[in-house]
User: Fold this.
Amino acid sequence: MNKVLSSIVALFSITTLYAQSPSGEVPKLVVGITIDQLRGDYLEMFRHTFGNKGFNRLLNNGLVYSNVTYNFPNLDKASTIATIYTGANPSYHGITADKKYAVESDSEISSFTDNKYLGNFTNAKLSPLPIKVSTIADELKIASGGQSDIFAFAPDASQALASGGHAASGAYWIEDYTGKWATTTFFKNKQPVVDQHNRNSESLSYTIGSITWRPAIDIEHYNAFPYTRNRDKFQHYFGVDKKDNIHLFKQSPYVNSEVNSIAIKVLESSSLGKRMNPDYLAVTFYAGNYEKALDKNYSIEIQDTYHRLDQELGRLLDAIESSVGLKHTLIFVVSTGYFNEQEILPEGVVTSGGDFYPDRSKALLNMYLMALYGREQWIKKYYNRQFFFDKKLLEDKKINLAEFQQNAAEFLVQSAGVQDVITSHQMLHGAYDENVQFYRNGYYKGITGDLFLELQPGWRVVDPQSSAHQRVRNNAVISPAIFFGSDIKPERINRTIEATEIAPSVAYRLRIRAPNAAKGEILKELY
Assistant:
Protein backbone atom coordinates (compact mmCIF):
# COMPACT_ATOMS: atom_id res chain seq x y z
CA MET A 1 0.00 0.00 0.00
CA ASN A 2 2.80 2.37 0.95
CA LYS A 3 4.53 1.63 -2.34
CA VAL A 4 1.33 2.47 -4.25
CA LEU A 5 0.87 5.76 -2.36
CA SER A 6 4.52 6.64 -2.96
CA SER A 7 4.11 5.98 -6.67
CA ILE A 8 0.96 8.16 -6.83
CA VAL A 9 2.72 11.01 -4.97
CA ALA A 10 5.70 10.71 -7.30
CA LEU A 11 3.43 10.73 -10.35
CA PHE A 12 1.61 13.88 -9.22
CA SER A 13 4.92 15.55 -8.39
CA ILE A 14 6.29 14.86 -11.88
CA THR A 15 3.01 15.94 -13.51
CA THR A 16 3.02 19.19 -11.53
CA LEU A 17 6.66 19.82 -12.44
CA TYR A 18 6.06 19.41 -16.17
CA ALA A 19 2.82 21.38 -16.01
CA GLN A 20 4.67 24.45 -14.79
CA SER A 21 5.16 27.07 -17.49
CA PRO A 22 6.17 30.73 -17.67
CA SER A 23 3.47 33.24 -16.99
CA GLY A 24 2.14 35.18 -19.97
CA GLU A 25 2.28 34.32 -23.67
CA VAL A 26 5.28 32.99 -25.56
CA PRO A 27 7.20 35.91 -27.12
CA LYS A 28 6.82 36.38 -30.86
CA LEU A 29 10.41 37.50 -31.18
CA VAL A 30 13.58 36.86 -29.19
CA VAL A 31 16.44 39.35 -29.53
CA GLY A 32 19.78 38.28 -28.07
CA ILE A 33 22.21 41.19 -27.71
CA THR A 34 25.77 40.30 -26.77
CA ILE A 35 28.07 43.24 -26.09
CA ASP A 36 31.73 42.40 -26.33
CA GLN A 37 33.66 43.71 -23.28
CA LEU A 38 30.71 45.61 -21.77
CA ARG A 39 31.55 46.69 -18.20
CA GLY A 40 28.92 47.24 -15.53
CA ASP A 41 31.04 49.78 -13.67
CA TYR A 42 31.41 51.83 -16.85
CA LEU A 43 27.61 51.76 -17.33
CA GLU A 44 27.22 53.49 -13.98
CA MET A 45 30.19 55.86 -14.45
CA PHE A 46 29.07 57.04 -17.90
CA ARG A 47 25.33 57.02 -17.22
CA HIS A 48 25.09 60.82 -17.04
CA THR A 49 25.78 60.96 -20.79
CA PHE A 50 23.01 58.48 -21.71
CA GLY A 51 19.55 59.31 -22.97
CA ASN A 52 16.28 57.65 -21.94
CA LYS A 53 15.85 55.15 -24.77
CA GLY A 54 18.90 52.90 -24.51
CA PHE A 55 20.74 51.70 -21.43
CA ASN A 56 18.52 53.68 -19.05
CA ARG A 57 15.37 52.10 -20.51
CA LEU A 58 16.90 48.64 -20.00
CA LEU A 59 18.26 49.37 -16.52
CA ASN A 60 15.07 51.03 -15.25
CA ASN A 61 12.54 48.63 -16.78
CA GLY A 62 14.41 45.35 -17.07
CA LEU A 63 15.41 42.42 -14.89
CA VAL A 64 19.02 43.38 -14.19
CA TYR A 65 21.58 40.91 -12.84
CA SER A 66 24.57 42.79 -11.46
CA ASN A 67 27.15 40.31 -12.70
CA VAL A 68 27.54 37.29 -14.95
CA THR A 69 30.61 35.07 -14.69
CA TYR A 70 32.34 32.62 -17.00
CA ASN A 71 34.00 29.65 -15.30
CA PHE A 72 36.90 29.01 -17.68
CA PRO A 73 40.21 30.73 -18.61
CA ASN A 74 41.26 33.04 -21.45
CA LEU A 75 37.88 34.57 -22.22
CA ASP A 76 37.41 36.08 -25.65
CA LYS A 77 34.69 37.13 -28.09
CA ALA A 78 34.14 33.60 -29.45
CA SER A 79 34.34 31.34 -26.37
CA THR A 80 32.04 33.55 -24.31
CA ILE A 81 29.34 34.01 -26.95
CA ALA A 82 29.33 30.28 -27.69
CA THR A 83 28.86 29.70 -23.95
CA ILE A 84 25.94 32.16 -23.76
CA TYR A 85 24.03 30.51 -26.61
CA THR A 86 24.79 26.86 -25.78
CA GLY A 87 24.54 27.10 -21.99
CA ALA A 88 27.75 25.05 -21.79
CA ASN A 89 31.47 25.61 -21.23
CA PRO A 90 34.10 25.15 -23.98
CA SER A 91 34.80 21.63 -22.68
CA TYR A 92 31.42 20.74 -24.21
CA HIS A 93 30.83 23.22 -27.05
CA GLY A 94 34.40 23.11 -28.39
CA ILE A 95 34.94 26.84 -29.08
CA THR A 96 37.91 27.53 -26.82
CA ALA A 97 38.86 30.82 -28.50
CA ASP A 98 38.34 32.96 -31.60
CA LYS A 99 41.36 31.26 -33.16
CA LYS A 100 43.12 27.98 -32.53
CA TYR A 101 46.42 26.28 -33.29
CA ALA A 102 46.03 23.59 -35.95
CA VAL A 103 48.65 20.93 -35.20
CA GLU A 104 48.29 19.24 -38.60
CA SER A 105 49.11 22.39 -40.60
CA ASP A 106 51.22 24.08 -37.89
CA SER A 107 49.19 27.26 -38.31
CA GLU A 108 46.77 29.58 -36.54
CA ILE A 109 43.25 29.31 -37.96
CA SER A 110 39.73 30.39 -37.06
CA SER A 111 37.98 28.08 -34.62
CA PHE A 112 35.17 27.95 -37.19
CA THR A 113 37.34 26.89 -40.15
CA ASP A 114 35.56 24.35 -42.34
CA ASN A 115 37.02 23.66 -45.79
CA LYS A 116 33.80 21.98 -46.93
CA TYR A 117 32.06 25.34 -47.31
CA LEU A 118 32.95 28.41 -49.37
CA GLY A 119 32.51 31.99 -48.34
CA ASN A 120 29.99 34.47 -49.71
CA PHE A 121 31.63 37.94 -50.07
CA THR A 122 34.69 36.45 -48.33
CA ASN A 123 37.51 34.02 -49.07
CA ALA A 124 37.24 32.48 -45.61
CA LYS A 125 35.91 28.92 -45.45
CA LEU A 126 33.86 28.70 -42.29
CA SER A 127 30.77 27.05 -40.80
CA PRO A 128 29.06 26.68 -37.39
CA LEU A 129 29.77 22.92 -37.33
CA PRO A 130 32.77 23.30 -34.97
CA ILE A 131 30.15 24.09 -32.27
CA LYS A 132 29.81 20.56 -30.92
CA VAL A 133 26.42 20.97 -29.20
CA SER A 134 23.09 22.64 -29.90
CA THR A 135 22.29 26.32 -29.32
CA ILE A 136 19.10 28.11 -28.27
CA ALA A 137 18.45 28.99 -31.92
CA ASP A 138 18.88 25.33 -32.97
CA GLU A 139 16.33 24.19 -30.41
CA LEU A 140 13.86 26.87 -31.51
CA LYS A 141 14.20 25.80 -35.14
CA ILE A 142 13.58 22.18 -34.16
CA ALA A 143 10.61 23.03 -31.92
CA SER A 144 8.97 25.11 -34.66
CA GLY A 145 9.40 22.39 -37.26
CA GLY A 146 11.78 24.62 -39.20
CA GLN A 147 9.33 27.53 -39.37
CA SER A 148 11.14 30.04 -37.14
CA ASP A 149 13.44 32.53 -38.87
CA ILE A 150 16.82 33.03 -37.21
CA PHE A 151 19.34 35.74 -38.13
CA ALA A 152 22.63 36.77 -36.56
CA PHE A 153 24.70 39.91 -37.25
CA ALA A 154 28.09 40.69 -35.70
CA PRO A 155 31.36 42.49 -36.39
CA ASP A 156 33.29 39.19 -36.63
CA ALA A 157 32.64 35.74 -38.08
CA SER A 158 33.10 33.84 -34.84
CA GLN A 159 30.51 36.01 -33.09
CA ALA A 160 27.93 35.64 -35.87
CA LEU A 161 28.37 31.87 -36.17
CA ALA A 162 28.32 31.30 -32.40
CA SER A 163 25.13 33.33 -31.93
CA GLY A 164 23.38 32.10 -35.08
CA GLY A 165 24.17 28.43 -34.50
CA HIS A 166 23.66 25.57 -36.93
CA ALA A 167 20.04 26.28 -37.84
CA ALA A 168 20.19 29.99 -38.68
CA SER A 169 18.44 31.35 -41.74
CA GLY A 170 21.54 33.53 -42.06
CA ALA A 171 24.59 34.57 -40.04
CA TYR A 172 26.53 37.60 -41.28
CA TRP A 173 29.70 39.45 -40.31
CA ILE A 174 31.80 42.35 -41.62
CA GLU A 175 34.56 41.03 -43.89
CA ASP A 176 38.00 42.10 -42.66
CA TYR A 177 39.33 43.44 -45.97
CA THR A 178 36.37 44.68 -48.00
CA GLY A 179 33.86 45.70 -45.35
CA LYS A 180 31.11 43.69 -47.08
CA TRP A 181 28.57 41.66 -45.11
CA ALA A 182 29.94 38.13 -45.49
CA THR A 183 28.55 34.68 -44.74
CA THR A 184 29.19 31.02 -45.54
CA THR A 185 27.56 28.68 -48.08
CA PHE A 186 26.69 26.43 -45.13
CA PHE A 187 23.53 28.57 -44.94
CA LYS A 188 21.48 27.81 -48.05
CA ASN A 189 19.18 30.85 -48.11
CA LYS A 190 20.38 34.27 -49.22
CA GLN A 191 18.92 37.35 -47.58
CA PRO A 192 18.04 39.81 -50.39
CA VAL A 193 18.32 42.87 -48.15
CA VAL A 194 21.93 42.00 -47.24
CA ASP A 195 22.92 41.27 -50.84
CA GLN A 196 21.34 44.51 -51.98
CA HIS A 197 23.18 46.45 -49.27
CA ASN A 198 26.52 44.89 -50.28
CA ARG A 199 26.07 46.00 -53.88
CA ASN A 200 24.92 49.58 -53.38
CA SER A 201 26.71 52.78 -52.42
CA GLU A 202 25.77 52.42 -48.74
CA SER A 203 28.18 49.50 -48.35
CA LEU A 204 31.04 50.09 -45.91
CA SER A 205 33.53 49.27 -48.67
CA TYR A 206 32.43 52.49 -50.41
CA THR A 207 31.86 54.73 -47.38
CA ILE A 208 34.71 53.93 -44.99
CA GLY A 209 37.05 56.40 -46.67
CA SER A 210 34.76 59.25 -45.65
CA ILE A 211 34.26 58.22 -42.00
CA THR A 212 36.03 60.20 -39.28
CA TRP A 213 35.43 59.44 -35.62
CA ARG A 214 35.10 62.59 -33.52
CA PRO A 215 33.43 63.06 -30.10
CA ALA A 216 29.63 62.94 -30.37
CA ILE A 217 29.19 65.53 -27.62
CA ASP A 218 31.31 68.14 -25.86
CA ILE A 219 34.19 66.27 -24.23
CA GLU A 220 33.64 68.24 -21.02
CA HIS A 221 30.82 65.75 -20.38
CA TYR A 222 33.31 62.86 -20.64
CA ASN A 223 34.59 63.43 -17.12
CA ALA A 224 34.24 59.96 -15.56
CA PHE A 225 38.01 59.47 -15.18
CA PRO A 226 39.68 62.25 -13.14
CA TYR A 227 43.13 60.89 -14.10
CA THR A 228 42.77 61.28 -17.88
CA ARG A 229 45.81 63.13 -19.22
CA ASN A 230 44.85 63.74 -22.84
CA ARG A 231 41.60 65.68 -22.88
CA ASP A 232 41.94 67.06 -26.39
CA LYS A 233 39.25 66.40 -28.98
CA PHE A 234 40.31 63.20 -30.71
CA GLN A 235 39.96 62.56 -34.42
CA HIS A 236 40.39 59.16 -36.11
CA TYR A 237 40.10 59.06 -39.89
CA PHE A 238 39.49 55.54 -41.25
CA GLY A 239 40.52 56.38 -44.81
CA VAL A 240 44.22 56.73 -43.93
CA ASP A 241 45.45 53.16 -43.48
CA LYS A 242 43.66 51.14 -46.14
CA LYS A 243 45.35 47.88 -45.10
CA ASP A 244 44.11 48.16 -41.54
CA ASN A 245 41.07 50.43 -41.78
CA ILE A 246 38.39 47.74 -41.32
CA HIS A 247 40.28 46.34 -38.32
CA LEU A 248 40.34 49.78 -36.69
CA PHE A 249 36.74 50.49 -37.71
CA LYS A 250 35.68 47.37 -35.78
CA GLN A 251 37.22 48.88 -32.62
CA SER A 252 35.17 52.04 -32.96
CA PRO A 253 31.51 52.76 -32.09
CA TYR A 254 30.74 53.07 -35.80
CA VAL A 255 30.82 49.28 -36.07
CA ASN A 256 27.77 49.19 -33.78
CA SER A 257 25.90 51.51 -36.12
CA GLU A 258 26.81 49.29 -39.09
CA VAL A 259 25.62 46.12 -37.30
CA ASN A 260 22.48 47.81 -36.02
CA SER A 261 21.45 49.22 -39.40
CA ILE A 262 21.56 45.88 -41.22
CA ALA A 263 19.85 44.08 -38.33
CA ILE A 264 16.98 46.61 -38.34
CA LYS A 265 16.62 46.33 -42.12
CA VAL A 266 16.24 42.56 -41.87
CA LEU A 267 13.93 42.86 -38.85
CA GLU A 268 11.56 45.08 -40.78
CA SER A 269 11.80 43.49 -44.25
CA SER A 270 11.56 39.85 -43.12
CA SER A 271 8.48 40.31 -40.94
CA LEU A 272 10.27 38.85 -37.93
CA GLY A 273 7.93 38.32 -34.98
CA LYS A 274 4.77 38.49 -37.10
CA ARG A 275 4.05 34.81 -37.64
CA MET A 276 2.71 31.93 -35.56
CA ASN A 277 6.15 30.69 -34.47
CA PRO A 278 8.66 32.86 -32.58
CA ASP A 279 11.56 34.27 -34.60
CA TYR A 280 15.08 34.99 -33.40
CA LEU A 281 17.49 37.87 -33.95
CA ALA A 282 21.04 37.82 -32.53
CA VAL A 283 23.08 41.03 -32.56
CA THR A 284 26.63 41.58 -31.29
CA PHE A 285 27.97 45.03 -30.40
CA TYR A 286 31.43 46.24 -29.32
CA ALA A 287 32.30 48.15 -26.13
CA GLY A 288 36.05 47.66 -25.93
CA ASN A 289 39.04 49.94 -26.29
CA TYR A 290 40.32 51.57 -29.46
CA GLU A 291 43.94 50.45 -29.82
CA LYS A 292 45.13 53.79 -31.20
CA ALA A 293 43.63 55.89 -28.41
CA LEU A 294 46.08 58.51 -27.19
CA ASP A 295 45.54 57.57 -23.54
CA LYS A 296 44.94 53.84 -23.17
CA ASN A 297 44.56 53.75 -19.40
CA TYR A 298 41.70 56.25 -19.20
CA SER A 299 40.44 57.43 -22.58
CA ILE A 300 37.87 59.85 -23.86
CA GLU A 301 37.23 57.36 -26.67
CA ILE A 302 35.76 54.66 -24.41
CA GLN A 303 33.27 57.16 -22.99
CA ASP A 304 32.25 58.21 -26.50
CA THR A 305 31.88 54.53 -27.44
CA TYR A 306 29.39 53.99 -24.60
CA HIS A 307 27.50 57.20 -25.41
CA ARG A 308 27.09 56.16 -29.04
CA LEU A 309 26.25 52.55 -28.09
CA ASP A 310 23.47 53.90 -25.86
CA GLN A 311 22.01 55.68 -28.89
CA GLU A 312 22.22 52.53 -31.01
CA LEU A 313 20.44 50.47 -28.36
CA GLY A 314 17.69 53.09 -28.28
CA ARG A 315 17.39 52.91 -32.07
CA LEU A 316 17.11 49.10 -31.99
CA LEU A 317 14.54 49.11 -29.17
CA ASP A 318 12.45 51.71 -31.02
CA ALA A 319 12.56 49.60 -34.19
CA ILE A 320 11.43 46.51 -32.25
CA GLU A 321 8.63 48.49 -30.63
CA SER A 322 7.46 49.78 -33.99
CA SER A 323 7.73 46.48 -35.84
CA VAL A 324 6.70 43.84 -33.27
CA GLY A 325 6.05 45.56 -29.95
CA LEU A 326 8.31 45.29 -26.91
CA LYS A 327 5.59 43.45 -24.98
CA HIS A 328 5.71 40.68 -27.60
CA THR A 329 9.53 40.50 -27.58
CA LEU A 330 11.96 38.88 -25.16
CA ILE A 331 15.25 40.78 -25.18
CA PHE A 332 18.35 39.76 -23.30
CA VAL A 333 21.58 41.74 -23.12
CA VAL A 334 24.76 39.99 -21.93
CA SER A 335 28.36 41.09 -21.56
CA THR A 336 31.22 38.83 -22.65
CA GLY A 337 32.76 39.20 -19.20
CA TYR A 338 36.29 40.40 -19.96
CA PHE A 339 38.04 43.62 -20.93
CA ASN A 340 41.23 43.97 -23.00
CA GLU A 341 43.22 46.94 -21.78
CA GLN A 342 46.68 47.92 -22.93
CA GLU A 343 48.22 49.18 -19.68
CA ILE A 344 50.82 51.92 -19.93
CA LEU A 345 53.15 52.52 -16.97
CA PRO A 346 54.41 56.09 -16.50
CA GLU A 347 58.14 56.55 -17.13
CA GLY A 348 60.18 55.66 -14.05
CA VAL A 349 57.42 53.60 -12.39
CA VAL A 350 58.60 50.15 -11.36
CA THR A 351 56.08 47.55 -10.23
CA SER A 352 56.27 43.96 -9.13
CA GLY A 353 56.42 41.36 -11.84
CA GLY A 354 58.52 41.20 -14.95
CA ASP A 355 58.51 40.14 -18.59
CA PHE A 356 57.56 36.62 -19.65
CA TYR A 357 59.01 35.60 -23.02
CA PRO A 358 57.14 32.60 -24.46
CA ASP A 359 59.87 31.86 -27.03
CA ARG A 360 62.56 31.72 -24.35
CA SER A 361 60.36 29.57 -22.14
CA LYS A 362 59.77 27.18 -25.04
CA ALA A 363 63.50 26.93 -25.79
CA LEU A 364 64.47 26.28 -22.15
CA LEU A 365 61.75 23.66 -21.74
CA ASN A 366 62.83 21.87 -24.91
CA MET A 367 66.46 21.81 -23.71
CA TYR A 368 65.33 20.25 -20.43
CA LEU A 369 63.25 17.62 -22.26
CA MET A 370 66.23 16.89 -24.52
CA ALA A 371 68.30 16.13 -21.42
CA LEU A 372 65.63 13.68 -20.21
CA TYR A 373 64.44 12.07 -23.44
CA GLY A 374 66.97 12.75 -26.19
CA ARG A 375 67.86 15.42 -28.72
CA GLU A 376 64.53 16.03 -30.47
CA GLN A 377 62.18 18.96 -30.97
CA TRP A 378 59.57 17.86 -28.45
CA ILE A 379 57.48 21.04 -28.53
CA LYS A 380 55.33 21.88 -31.54
CA LYS A 381 54.05 25.26 -30.40
CA TYR A 382 53.46 27.75 -27.60
CA TYR A 383 50.04 29.28 -28.24
CA ASN A 384 47.61 31.21 -26.05
CA ARG A 385 49.42 30.25 -22.81
CA GLN A 386 49.49 26.60 -23.81
CA PHE A 387 52.26 24.21 -24.88
CA PHE A 388 51.57 21.68 -27.62
CA PHE A 389 53.85 18.61 -27.71
CA ASP A 390 54.71 16.48 -30.72
CA LYS A 391 52.35 13.59 -29.99
CA LYS A 392 53.50 11.50 -32.95
CA LEU A 393 57.12 11.74 -31.82
CA LEU A 394 56.13 10.67 -28.32
CA GLU A 395 54.22 7.70 -29.72
CA ASP A 396 57.11 6.69 -31.96
CA LYS A 397 59.51 6.84 -29.01
CA LYS A 398 57.00 4.95 -26.84
CA ILE A 399 57.15 7.66 -24.17
CA ASN A 400 54.37 7.84 -21.56
CA LEU A 401 52.46 11.09 -22.25
CA ALA A 402 51.26 11.65 -18.67
CA GLU A 403 54.78 11.27 -17.28
CA PHE A 404 56.21 13.50 -20.01
CA GLN A 405 53.63 16.22 -19.26
CA GLN A 406 54.28 16.01 -15.53
CA ASN A 407 58.05 16.38 -15.95
CA ALA A 408 57.55 19.38 -18.22
CA ALA A 409 55.07 20.96 -15.77
CA GLU A 410 57.41 20.51 -12.79
CA PHE A 411 60.18 22.26 -14.73
CA LEU A 412 58.01 25.14 -15.95
CA VAL A 413 56.40 25.89 -12.60
CA GLN A 414 59.85 26.88 -11.30
CA SER A 415 60.13 29.61 -13.95
CA ALA A 416 59.84 33.24 -12.91
CA GLY A 417 56.33 34.56 -13.51
CA VAL A 418 54.65 31.15 -13.61
CA GLN A 419 52.02 30.67 -10.92
CA ASP A 420 50.89 27.17 -11.87
CA VAL A 421 51.01 24.66 -14.72
CA ILE A 422 48.08 22.34 -15.39
CA THR A 423 48.50 19.27 -17.60
CA SER A 424 45.78 17.86 -19.84
CA HIS A 425 46.16 14.52 -18.01
CA GLN A 426 45.42 16.28 -14.71
CA MET A 427 42.32 17.87 -16.20
CA LEU A 428 40.98 14.61 -17.57
CA HIS A 429 42.14 12.11 -14.95
CA GLY A 430 43.53 13.98 -11.93
CA ALA A 431 42.03 14.46 -8.49
CA TYR A 432 39.43 17.24 -8.22
CA ASP A 433 40.75 20.70 -7.51
CA GLU A 434 38.96 24.02 -8.10
CA ASN A 435 41.79 25.46 -10.17
CA VAL A 436 42.14 22.27 -12.22
CA GLN A 437 38.36 22.23 -12.81
CA PHE A 438 38.47 25.87 -13.94
CA TYR A 439 41.02 24.99 -16.63
CA ARG A 440 39.20 21.74 -17.41
CA ASN A 441 36.13 23.79 -18.37
CA GLY A 442 38.20 25.46 -21.09
CA TYR A 443 39.76 22.23 -22.38
CA TYR A 444 38.60 20.35 -25.46
CA LYS A 445 40.48 17.27 -26.62
CA GLY A 446 42.17 17.72 -29.97
CA ILE A 447 41.89 21.52 -29.86
CA THR A 448 43.67 22.67 -26.70
CA GLY A 449 47.27 21.98 -25.70
CA ASP A 450 49.11 19.64 -23.33
CA LEU A 451 50.02 22.25 -20.71
CA PHE A 452 48.10 25.31 -19.51
CA LEU A 453 50.17 28.10 -17.94
CA GLU A 454 48.79 30.35 -15.23
CA LEU A 455 50.97 33.46 -15.04
CA GLN A 456 51.34 35.68 -12.01
CA PRO A 457 49.50 39.03 -11.94
CA GLY A 458 51.68 41.95 -12.93
CA TRP A 459 53.81 40.01 -15.38
CA ARG A 460 53.86 41.14 -19.00
CA VAL A 461 53.69 38.62 -21.84
CA VAL A 462 56.15 39.82 -24.49
CA ASP A 463 55.18 38.56 -27.93
CA PRO A 464 57.88 39.32 -30.55
CA GLN A 465 55.22 39.08 -33.28
CA SER A 466 53.14 41.89 -31.80
CA SER A 467 53.69 45.41 -30.52
CA ALA A 468 50.92 44.93 -27.93
CA HIS A 469 52.28 43.15 -24.87
CA GLN A 470 49.55 42.11 -22.46
CA ARG A 471 50.06 42.52 -18.73
CA VAL A 472 48.42 39.83 -16.59
CA ARG A 473 45.56 41.02 -14.40
CA ASN A 474 43.18 38.79 -12.45
CA ASN A 475 40.66 41.51 -11.63
CA ALA A 476 37.05 40.47 -11.96
CA VAL A 477 35.20 42.57 -14.55
CA ILE A 478 31.66 43.50 -13.51
CA SER A 479 29.54 42.18 -16.37
CA PRO A 480 25.77 42.76 -16.30
CA ALA A 481 23.01 40.62 -17.81
CA ILE A 482 19.61 42.21 -18.53
CA PHE A 483 16.26 40.67 -19.51
CA PHE A 484 13.66 43.05 -20.91
CA GLY A 485 10.26 43.02 -22.64
CA SER A 486 7.80 40.12 -22.78
CA ASP A 487 6.23 39.93 -19.31
CA ILE A 488 9.54 40.71 -17.56
CA LYS A 489 9.15 42.25 -14.11
CA PRO A 490 11.60 45.14 -13.50
CA GLU A 491 14.00 44.20 -10.72
CA ARG A 492 17.66 44.55 -9.74
CA ILE A 493 19.31 41.34 -8.57
CA ASN A 494 22.58 41.84 -6.71
CA ARG A 495 24.05 38.39 -7.20
CA THR A 496 26.42 36.80 -9.64
CA ILE A 497 24.90 34.37 -12.12
CA GLU A 498 26.63 31.81 -14.33
CA ALA A 499 26.77 32.44 -18.07
CA THR A 500 25.59 28.86 -18.52
CA GLU A 501 22.26 29.76 -16.85
CA ILE A 502 21.19 32.15 -19.62
CA ALA A 503 20.41 29.66 -22.40
CA PRO A 504 18.17 27.34 -20.34
CA SER A 505 16.36 30.39 -18.94
CA VAL A 506 15.64 31.78 -22.42
CA ALA A 507 14.55 28.30 -23.56
CA TYR A 508 12.18 28.10 -20.59
CA ARG A 509 10.56 31.38 -21.60
CA LEU A 510 10.17 30.08 -25.15
CA ARG A 511 8.74 26.80 -23.81
CA ILE A 512 11.26 24.74 -25.75
CA ARG A 513 13.99 22.33 -24.72
CA ALA A 514 17.23 23.79 -23.42
CA PRO A 515 20.32 23.22 -25.61
CA ASN A 516 21.50 19.63 -25.26
CA ALA A 517 24.62 20.39 -23.18
CA ALA A 518 23.02 23.06 -20.96
CA LYS A 519 23.17 21.89 -17.35
CA GLY A 520 22.61 25.28 -15.71
CA GLU A 521 19.61 26.11 -13.53
CA ILE A 522 16.79 28.29 -14.81
CA LEU A 523 17.09 31.74 -13.25
CA LYS A 524 14.39 31.77 -10.57
CA GLU A 525 13.29 35.33 -11.37
CA LEU A 526 12.24 34.17 -14.86
CA TYR A 527 9.82 31.50 -13.63
About this structure: The longest helix spans residues 300-323. The two ends are 36 Å apart (CA to CA).
